[in-house]
Amino acid sequence: MEPFNRPFMTGREFVYIAEAYANGMLAGDGTFTKQCHALLQQQIGCAQALLTHSCTAALEMSALLADVQPGDEIVMPSYTFTSTANAFVLRGGVPVFVDIRPDTLNLDETLIEAAITPRTKAIVPVHYAGVACEMDPILGMARQHGLRVIEDAAQGYGSTYHGRPLGSLGDLGCLSFHETKNVISGEGGALLVNDPALGERAEIVREKGTNRSAFFRGAVDKYTWVDVGSSYLPGELIAAFLWAQLQQGEDITRRRLGIWQHYHDGLAALEQRGWLRRPIVPPHCQHNAHMYYVLLPSLAARQEVIRRMRAAGVSPVFHYVPLHSSPAGRRFGRAATPMTHTDALSERLLRLPLWIGVDRDLVLRTFVDACTAVCGSL
Ligand SMILES: *Cc1c(COP(=O)(O)O)cnc(C)c1O
């Protein structure tokens, strides 16, 4: 069976883990963590990068840093992973869902304005499949209404918008290094701080509400509990693993783009026949090949394509159940707009296996055969 995902290893992970072991320093914010921070800052151009346990943890930190209070509203897409909303619900915030654009499947920036109320605190654009949201209008609207912008860039490492790296555009950006993403550490993530005014508090929130980071820098002579916080920093073994991956970041993106383009070229003819729609990437968005998806004609067609591909030994997957129609989404959030595209596209989307080392010809052939059998007889 060709799996949906297999984590890519650079070969250097063990070398650095052995080094961390030999150093005998396993808690967070050691040598490897600092190296990862410096490299991320250089690659992304953010003022400050802080490793976290996950993108979920980075989003939770963002909710604390944005001072989300019970009843505050957070504008976001419904077509996303649960953590985008959960992080704010944990603080009593209310996710306010808006529909997505039919081309990129990203938050439709033209619908945000109508969703803003006096309770709105922040906008959370999610860069779906590593393709940027329309950040210039979103940032402009946020400035005009005094709102925070928190990028869910879980899928966006290595992507740019008008040449600017994702995660560097909002007040805060959140990356994921989960095993299913491009650059990985098993579980892992980072908070990117772009508003320098949030930097010191970000360190405090991440270090159990203490000013320990300032103490280690020699900025204060003792450390103590100064604010609300939790433990969001990973240990050195995770950072050592990630250090190997981050150094290969560009190469990983390049190799994934090769597979993405292979699928894209191979499916042009099927799109011309009207059997599917391929991903649309606007010219000013350089993506990172996080995902290759197609939109099939219907839910029934998707089910039958999946059945046929599995029978032929390939595992495609789909996602997401839109949050506005999920049990928790209905309880904690609300839809600010009709969810026409979210509802329709989430039923038709299919993701092909895309990982370094995947049998790209097998995946493409299996999909083309299944799609031809299903759509050719519609
Ligand atoms: C993967 C993902 C997350 C969660 O990332 P973790 O590192 O697993 O917490 C959040 N948002 C989006 C859009 C994701 O794809």
Number of helices: 15
- Order of strands side by side in the largest beta sheet? 1-9-8-5-4-2-3-12
Uncertain stretches of 5 or more adjacent residues: none
What is the H-and-E element order? HHEHEHEHEHEEEEEHHHHHEEHHEHEH
Mean pLDDT: 97
Spatial separation of the terminal alpha carbons: 28 Å
The major pleated sheet works out as: 8 strands, mixed
Helix content: 25-40%
Strand content bin: 5-15%
- Described by the principal axes of the CA atoms, the overall outline is globular
Structural class of the helix and strand makeup? alpha/beta
* CATH architecture verdict of the largest domain: 3-Layer(aba) Sandwich
**Count of discrete domains:** 2
* CATH class type of the largest domain: Alpha Beta
Number of separate strands:
13
**Rg over C-alpha atoms, rounded to the nearest angstrom:** 21 Å
CATH T-level topology of the largest domain: Aspartate Aminotransferase, domain 2
Give the ligands present: pyridoxal-5'-phosphate
The CATH homology group name of the largest domain: Type I PLP-dependent aspartate aminotransferase-like (Major domain)
